[in-house]
Specification:
The chain is an alpha/beta fold and 528 residues long. It contains 19 helices and 19 strands. The longest helix has 18 residues.
C-alpha cells in the first residue's frame, strides 16, 4: 500500500467527529473494548490480544459494533465489512471517508484504513482534554517497514515534549517540524497564534486534518526546511521535536522524513540550536528534544555547550539517556519497521556501525533543551549578577538519567518555576539571600538511614517527589536548615541559630551552607 492523498475538508471532518463521538471512540472506550492486557500488548507492538477481544465482541449476526469496527480499521489496521463501516460512519459515510483519504475501497465488500486514527487523552496546566490524531499507518498495521515519507503519529517523544511545554500564555509560538501537528495543537493551548512548519507537504496536510478534526484554529502551516519558512520572524515560544536521528549518509539506508534531517551526525541539532536565537523575541523560550554525539575526549554535553557558547541565550540542557553506538543503531533500525530477523537488518546495522566508527562516535546522548533569549539580549560570555551571587545567564548542563518525579500535568510548570528561581537567585548576592525567607516545597521528604543501634544517622537524603525527582545528600546542618525553612525565619537567622546549636563558627557555616541553599532553590526543593 502506498501513501494516499489526504484531504482536510472541514464539513466532512465535522461529520467524522460526530461519528467518532457517537461511537465513543475514546481512550476509555477502547480500554473498555479490549481490556488492559490487550492494551498493554498493543503498546509492545502486539495486536493479537486486541484482535481476539474484538472477535469475541461480535453480535449475534457476526457483526462488529461501531466502536469495534473503528478500532479494527484505524488502530489495528484490519479491513472490515463495508456494512460495518457504514454503520460506524453513519454521518460521514464510507464514500466520505474515502474522499478524506481515510479509507481504501476495494472491488469486494470490505474496506481498509488508509490512515491511522486514534484517540489521545492528556492533562496539562490548562486541564484535561482528548483529541483524535491521524497519522500514517505503522508497521503493526502494514506488516512491513514503513515508507520514507511516513508521517509519524503520537509516540514517546511526542508526549515527552508536550509534557515539557511551559504553560505561560504567549502571543506567538513556532512548532518547528510539526509532523502530524501534535505539538502545534498543544502549543495553541497557551499561544494566541501558532506557526507550524515542515519540509513534508504530506505532514502539513495531516496536521491541517488533525487541527480541523479537533476544532482547533489559529494554526498557520508553512512549508520548508527548519527556520527557512519563518525567515525574519521572531516568536515568544519555539517548540520542536526535530528530525534529529543520526543516520548513515550512504546509499541503501532509508532516510525517513519524520526523523532524518539529511545532515551528517548531530549537525541538524547544532544548526537548530545556533539559529534559535535569531527567532526568539526578548524573553522568548525554545524547548526541544535532541541527540548529541560523544567523541573520544569530547563528552556530548560539552559539544552542546560549544554550540551555544556565543549565542547569548540562557541554556538548560538535560541529558536523560545515553546509548552506546550498537544500541542506538538497533533502536532506530527497528523504529523504521525492520525486524531483527529481516535479511536487511544486518546490512543496515553494519552501515550504522561503519558510520560511527569512521567519525569516532562512541555513544549518543538524548535529552531536553530549554533556551531563553534574555530580555536585555547582550551578547558575550555569561556575567555574574553580584559577588557571591548566581550567574546572570543560566548555563546549566546536567545529566539526569533515571526516573523522574511525579508530574500528572507534565514538567512544564516545573521548568517555568526553575527559570523564575534562577532569575530570583541571580538578582541576589549572598547578603540578600541571607535576608530572604524560604519554604520547603510540599513534595519534598526527608529520609534518614541509621546503623542498627545508632542514634545518629549515617545518611540523610532530601527527596523531591515532583519535578526531576532529585535526591540530595544532606549533612546535619543542611537538613536542619531545610527543616527550619517555614517561610517566616530568614536564612541568616536560621544559620545563626544553627551555629549556636552546633557550636560552629557562624561565618564559616554561612559560607558552607549558602551555595547549597542556592542549589536547593534552583532545583525547586526550597522556594522563595
Amino acid at each position: 500500500m502506498t501513501l494516499r492523498d489526504v484531504h482536510a475538508d472541514a464539513p466532512l471532518l465535522a461529520r467524522l467527529a460526530d461519528d467518532l463521538r457517537a461511537a465513543r471512540f475514546t481512550v476509555d472506550g477502547l480500554a473498555e473494548l479490549w481490556g488492559a492486557e490487550a492494551g498493554a500488548a498493543l503498546h509492545r507492538g502486539r495486536r493479537l490480544p486486541a484482535v481476539r477481544a474484538l472477535e469475541a465482541a461480535r453480535d449475534g449476526h457476526g457483526r462488529l459494533g461501531s466502536r469495534a469496527a473503528l478500532a479494527a480499521l484505524f488502530v489495528l489496521g484490519i479491513a472490515v465489512d463495508r456494512v460495518e463501516a457504514e454503520a460506524a460512519l453513519a454521518s460521514l459515510g464510507v464514500d466520505g471517508a474515502a474522499e478524506l483519504g481515510l479509507l481504501t475501497l476495494s472491488e469486494g465488500s470490505s474496506v481498509a484504513a488508509a490512515l491511522d486514527l486514534r484517540p489521545y487523552a492528556f492533562t496539562d496546566a490548562a486541564g484535561s482534554a482528548e483529541w483524535w490524531v491521524a497519522s500514517d499507518l505503522g508497521e503493526l498495521a502494514l506488516g512491513r517497514a514503513i515508507e520514507t515519507g511516513h508521517v509519524l503519529g503520537i509516540g514517546g517523544a511526542s508526549t515527552t515534549l508536550a509534557g515539557l511545554l511551559m504553560p505561560t500564555p504567549v502571543r506567538t509560538a513556532l512548532d518547528l517540524g510539526t509532523g502530524c501537528g501534535i505539538q502545534a495543537m498543544h502549543a495553541r493551548r497557551f499561544a494566541e497564534r501558532v506557526v507550524a512548519t515542515d519540509i513534508s507537504a504530506r505532514a502539513l496536510t495531516i496536521a491541517r486534518f488533525n487541527a480541523r478534526l479537533n476544532g482547533i484554529d489559529g494554526i498557520e502551516l508553512r512549508a520548508g526546511s527548519l527556520f527557512e519558512p519563518v525567515a525574519g520572524d521572531r516568536f515568544d515560544r519555539i517548540v520542536s521535536n526535530p528530525p534529529f536521528v543520526i543516520t548513515p549518509r550512504v546509499a541503501g539506508v532509508p532516510a525517513y522524513e519524520y526523523r532524518d534531517g539529511g545532515m551528517t551526525g548531530d549537525q541538524l541539532v547544532e544548526r537548530v540550536l545556533r539559529e534559535a536565537a535569531d527567532h526568539l523575541n526578548p524573553g522568548g523560550v525554545a524547548q526541544l528534544l535532541a541527540n548529541w554525539e560523544y567523541h573520544p575526549g569530547e563528552p556530548g554535553l560539552d559539544r552542546v555547550r560549544g554550540w551555544l557558547g556565543a549565542s547569548g541565550l540562557d541554556a538548560w540542557v538535560i541529558e536523560r539517556e545515553l546509548m552506546d553506538a550498537p544500541t542506538y543503531a538497533e533502536t532506530w533500525i527497528r523504529d523504521g519497521g525492520t525486524r531483527d530477523d529481516a535479511p536487511e537488518f544486518e546490512r543496515l546495522y553494519a552501515a550504522w556501525l561503519d558510520d560511527f566508527e569512521a567519525r569516532g562516535v562512541e555513544s549518543v546522548g538524548f535529552g531536553y533543551v530549554t533556551l531563553r533569549r534574555p530580555v536585555a539580549a547582550e551578547q558575550g560570555p555569561p556575567a555574574r549578577a553580584a559577588e557571591g551571587g548566581a550567574s546572570a545567564r543560566l548555563q546549566r548542563y546536567e545529566r539526569l538519567h533515571g526516573a523522574l518525579g511525579g508530574h500528572d500535568a507534565g514538567l512544564g510548570a516545573h521548568i517555568e518555576a526553575a527559570l523564575a528561581a534562577h532569575d530570583w537567585l541571580a538578582a541576589r548576592d549572598d547578603d540578600a539571600l541571607g535576608r530572604a525567607t524560604l519554604a520547603v516545597a510540599p513534595d519534598v521528604t526527608e529520609h534518614r538511614h541509621y546503623w542498627p543501634g545508632s542514634d545518629d544517622p549515617t545518611v540523610i537524603e532530601l527527596r523531591q517527589g515532583g519535578g526531576f525527582g532529585r535526591t540530595v545528600d544532606a549533612d546535619t546542618a543542611l537538613a536542619a536548615l531545610v527543616g527550619a525553612c517555614d517561610g517566616e525565619l530568614t536564612v541568616q537567622a536560621i544559620v545563626a541559630a544553627l551555629a549556636d546549636l552546633l557550636e560552629a563558627d557562624a561565618s564559616a557555616l554561612r559560607d558552607a551552607l549558602l551555595p547549597r541553599v542556592r542549589d536547593l532553590v534552583a532545583w525547586g526543593i526550597l522556594t522563595p
